[in-house]
Structure to design on (602 residues):
């Protein structure tokens, strides 16, 4: 079943008097359990595409359907509602809240998504266990290694059963071993829990876990190849 | 529910300490200045409040109880003859010079009556008997005079305008707005000591019969004494207090102090909340990206502002309580009513929320796409 359907997306913005076309007629779809790698050089439009698919930016034209629901870009409250319910983000710089422990970071994200009290605490603990950080649940981000921080970020993204995971360079700040572990974790979570994961990356290792590899250049999605 | 506002606020303890110190300083400044001013204003009317009179007759345009003018003391007979008047007596309130044993001279404000006990003043006698004042050239002096006159005891003598008077007792809480010490002596001896007061008085105090028509009595008094003013007790107390607020710079001074105190608090809280918001901008961007809206983040900042207000207010109140014994030793009365305290608390919360408003503006323009940037 399709989790994400994007059709003919374009994005234009003004840079002084010039009009920059960041995306040109991008279409893609993703199914549950699927891991897709999105590759491209800096400035190719991959982060713009990720932001639009993540309902953070709105496209100039085109349509998006996430988990069966059409995204109405004209209503900002709709966008935040879809982000809450259907999308989990993993950021390159982890973006954990320094004053919250690992488990609290996950629990707070659940609170935003409408989960409260014991149920939120239980779910937070479940995903912290799932990413293998049971013994670091009460550590502050400052006391965690880069790999551990990224695991917490992944736990935060998957908590609450969002069907679509969007990861922005999740291995960029990790050494090879931790990078491999994080990618394996993303793959397992996507497959075992039926999520669709789109990973924006420069890292060729992502190909090893991806079901499909997309390439973007000058705002055009040029390749869509299956790897497995 | 994770209380992110509290977690962020308490995570940076130095910033929190600076914020709380700022709010506490502003609160303490407002409470102490306001309390001292109200305490002084209480002194401005304490004799009026304590003296058991319903009406006060003054010389025309007397501005307050301390700055008196004289009129013939025989007017009291006219007052006593009016229906509804239970009793009326002359009261002299007059500044005199006292020669001290060290050769210096100091001012004293003398209250002089024929029958103090009947009117309930002085209301707090710590030594001696008020009735003895009629027996000779005797005076009772309030304890608050010690600061200016030096130590004094019953049985000692002081010269009042060149006349030796014996101190026969001490009182407490008889204070004036001008902080001039207060003494009590018999009406006729006060007239004898001060030639200006011969056959003169400064007030006639009036007690009405129970059930008397106050307005009718006042109208009759005004008709009988056309060159005097007649005030009810409440009016006279209010006039005496208001004089110091409106006719001197003290009201403006208080307003400026309170305003500056509040301004300092607002600036410190604004600065710390804003810099905290700027420092946590990436976190707020992440929270927005996850799905929170501006309202969620406003609530975090508002909660931080309210927590800073409540904690800072409590700290400021503690500072004020700690200052009270010091002020007491300086004979400065700190009067903080519960309504003033509540108003200061409300003001603190509003002040802190206003301080957070600038952070609201910054957050409302926050682009969650920033989370994808390095």
């Amino acid at each position: 079943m399709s989790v994400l359907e994007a059709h003919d997306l374009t994005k234009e913005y003004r840079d002084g008097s010039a009009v920059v076309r960041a995306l040109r007629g991008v279409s893609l779809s993703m199914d549950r359990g699927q891991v897709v790698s999105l590759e491209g050089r800096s400035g190719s439009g991959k982060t713009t595409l990720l932001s639009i698919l993540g309902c953070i930016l709105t496209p100039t034209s085109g349509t998006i359907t996430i988990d069966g629901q059409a995204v109405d870009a004209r209503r900002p409250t709709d966008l935040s509602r879809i982000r809450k319910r259907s999308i989990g983000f993993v950021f390159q710089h982890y973006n954990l809240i320094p004053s919250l422990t690992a488990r609290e970071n996950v629990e707070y994200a659940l609170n935003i998504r409408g989960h409260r009290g014991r149920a939120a605490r239980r779910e937070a603990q479940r995903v912290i266990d799932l990413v293998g950080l049971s013994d670091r649940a009460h550590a502050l981000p400052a006391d965690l290694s880069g790999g551990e921080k990224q695991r917490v970020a992944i736990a935060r993204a998957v908590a609450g059963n969002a069907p679509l995971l969007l990861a922005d360079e999740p291995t960029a700040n990790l050494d090879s071993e931790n990078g491999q572990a994080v990618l394996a974790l993303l793959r397992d979570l996507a497959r075992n829990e039926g999520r669709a994961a789109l990973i924006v990356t420069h890292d060729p290792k992502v190909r090893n876990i991806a079901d499909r590899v997309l390439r973007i250049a000058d705002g055009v999605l040029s390749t869509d190849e299956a790897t497995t | 529910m994770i209380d992110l506002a509290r977690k962020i606020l308490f995570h940076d303890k130095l910033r929190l300490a600076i914020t709380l110190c700022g709010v506490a300083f502003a609160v303490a400044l407002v409470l102490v200045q306001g309390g001292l001013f109200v305490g002084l204003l209480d002194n401005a009317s304490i004799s009026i409040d304590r003296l058991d009179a319903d009406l006060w007759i003054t010389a025309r345009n007397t501005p307050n109880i301390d700055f008196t003018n004289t009129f013939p003391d025989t007017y009291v007979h006219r007052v006593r003859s009016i229906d509804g008047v239970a009793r009326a007596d002359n009261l002299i309130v007059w500044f005199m010079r006292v020669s001290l044993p060290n050769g210096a001279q100091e001012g004293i404000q003398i209250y002089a009556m024929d029958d103090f006990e009947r009117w309930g003043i002085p209301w707090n006698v710590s030594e001696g008997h008020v009735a003895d004042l009629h027996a000779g050239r005797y005076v009772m002096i309030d304890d608050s005079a010690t600061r200016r006159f030096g130590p004094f005891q019953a049985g000692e003598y002081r010269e009042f305008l060149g006349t030796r008077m014996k101190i026969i007792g001490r009182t407490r809480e008889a204070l004036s707005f001008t902080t001039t010490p207060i003494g009590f002596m018999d009406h006729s001896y006060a007239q004898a000591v001060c030639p200006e007061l011969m056959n003169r008085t400064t007030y006639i105090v009036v007690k009405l019969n129970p059930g008397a028509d106050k307005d009718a009595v006042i109208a009759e008094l005004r008709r009988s004494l056309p060159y005097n003013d007649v005030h009810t007790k409440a009016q006279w107390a209010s006039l005496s207090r208001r004089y110091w607020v409106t006719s001197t710079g003290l009201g403006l001074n208080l307003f400026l102090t309170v305003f500056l105190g509040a301004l300092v608090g607002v600036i410190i809280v604004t600065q710390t909340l804003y810099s905290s918001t700027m420092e946590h901008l990436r976190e707020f961007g992440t929270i927005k990206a996850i799905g929170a809206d501006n309202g969620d983040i406003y609530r975090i900042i508002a909660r931080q502002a309210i927590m800073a207000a409540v904690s800072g207010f409590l700290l400021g109140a503690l500072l004020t309580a700690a200052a009270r014994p010091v002020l007491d030793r300086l004979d400065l009365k700190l009067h903080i009513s519960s309504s003033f305290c509540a108003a200061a608390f409300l003001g603190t919360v509003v002040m802190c929320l206003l301080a957070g408003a600038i952070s609201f503006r910054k957050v409302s323009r926050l682009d969650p796409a920033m989370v994808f940037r390095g």
Q: What stands out?
A: The CA atoms of residues 13 and 20 of chain A lie 5 Å apart. Chain A has one domain: 2-226. The helical segments of chain A are 46-53, 76-86, 102-112, 117-130, 146-158, 176-193, 206-209.
